[in-house]
Structure formats: C-alpha cells, structure tokens
Write a structure and sequence with these properties.
The chain is α/β, with parallel strands linked by helices. The chain folds into 2 domains: 5-92 and 174-327, P-loop containing nucleotide triphosphate hydrolases (Rossmann fold, 3-Layer(aba) Sandwich), CATH 3.40.50.300; 100-171. 35% of the residues lie in helices and 23% in strands.
Length: 328
Amino acid sequence: MAPLLQVENLRVELAIRGGVVPVIDDLSFTLKHGENISFVGESGCGKSMTALAIMGLLPEGIGRIASGRILFDGEDLTTASEARLRDIRGNQISMIFQEPMTSLNPVYTVGEQIAEVLRAHQNLGHRAALDTAVELLDAVRIPNARSRVNDYPFQMSGGQRQRVMIAIALACSPKILIADEPTTALDVTVQAQIFDLLRDLRKQTGTSIIMITHDMGAVAEMADRLIVMYAGRKAEEGAVDTVISHPRHPYSQGLISCVPHIMANLTAERHELTEIPGIVPSISEFGQDRCLYASRCPRVSDQCRTMRPPENPVSADQISACWHAEDL
C-alpha cells in the first residue's frame, strides 16, 4: 500500500533581514496509514515549520516552499490551490496547535467553535453540528459534555482546553492528525491523560498521527517511528525502539541522555543527568555545507566542519546523517 503522506526533498525558505535561509533543508519522510511518527528536537530545529508546510500555513510573504513535493494520497499539496487546501485543512488533515490558551477564540463558546468546523466541512445544520459537538466533547472525556458545550474557553482548565482543541481537530475524522507540542504548559498528570487520549483515539479511528515534541520520554511511549531534527535537517530516523536503544547520531545520544527514566531502562548503572553543551545555531547559519551540529559534538572532526554528511542507512530500519555513525 502506498504511503498516506510522502514528503520528498522538501526545502522551505524564510525571508530574514540578512536574506533568505532554508529553515527546512532537503527533508524526506513517509507516513503510513495508521502510523504514529514523532519529530523531536530542540526549539528552532524546524519541527513546527514542517507541520505548517504540510498544512499550507507558512507565514504569507515570509515563508515559501522552494522545492520538493508533499504528496497526500498521491496529490501534491505544494501545487494545490488555496481553495483546495482549505478543503483539506481541518477535514482530511487536522492540527492541534501548541498553545490552547490562545488557539481558541475567547468570545465564542467551545461548542460553537467545534460546530463551525462541522458546518464548513460536513454541511451540517446548526442543531446537528452542536449535537455532534457534544458527542466530540464526550469522546475527549470532558465531563458533563451537554452542559459544558455552552462554556467559553476561560471557564475551562488548560487540560480541558487542550481536549477541546483535540475535539476540533478530530471533528471531521481526518486521515492525518498533526499534534504540535500537545502538552505544552500542562502539568505531568494532565500530560499523561492527553497522551492516553491520543493513543485511544488512534486505535478507535485509525488516524495517522504526526507528533511534534522536544520530549524524548513522550516519544518513547507514543510513537512507532522517530525523526530527529536539527537545524532544519534530519539527523536520524528509525523505529523508536531502535533509535532509543542504539542511537547512531551524537545529537540523538544527547537527547536520550537528558531523560533519566529512559537511561534507567537502558542500563543498570547509575546515570547522572547530562546536558548538550551550546545552543542551536543561528538561523542565518542554516543551509551551510557542513555538519551544523559540529560546534556541539564531542566526536567532531575536520570533515564535519567542511562537508555536509549524507543520510546513510546504518541498519535495516535506521538512517543517520553523521560522518561517524558507524563508530557510535
């Protein structure tokens, strides 16, 4: 069966004061039907920009897809009209945005905001759309859904608002759900509830999920496959279990070493919390023909500073963009 989503050599450029830079640089990946893949990396590595490119929501006048293809069910979204993208957005591909506190409209009830999607894409009448909104609130485990459908966002907790965002995203039974940092600003208990909810909904609906996060612990629990992003490029890709137990890129190793409970599962030895030195390079450095992780890497060599490493298969289900992948 052909992949549901196929991204080929995607390059997204952003206009900045110093010129134009590639915030996504030659990115390729596939998403199968019913699969959950996670993009992980620090802030500024291109995870959310990848999601916005898929949704056709790049900042107008600033960002653009310079090259590559985004094939959804065989249709190239990079050449689709705005009208066609509006038909797909929220209907066949939905997105849960990072911040539920600001993503919901404060002057409309949550029921109206869910119903709006149903009226736009499912041609439901006002009463039928509100009845379906109640069912969706119940599905995302908001108690007393019949009465809460008339609440405004300020009357709900952060976790409940995130559930409303999930209900909006799932209203039209999309084929792909993009969850961009779905547990930002939520406490640990609510985070676990949201992840359980997404896991259950995936089983019930068969929706494919792209989860964007910086939390390697969440990836270990949720995803089938993992893509590690760094400075707009893919650093490593593979099955979650394979990458976590045998990372073949120094950046992946650093991310995993920052999560104590993952390290405790991998080794019986006492493991001290570590950190990756330095910071992600400035956006003005993106696209340079070298390894952009070189300044932070403990295994750096002269080759890393002068040549961009290719994405090479290092096992049956793992790819690494590192000159020293075989030595890791």
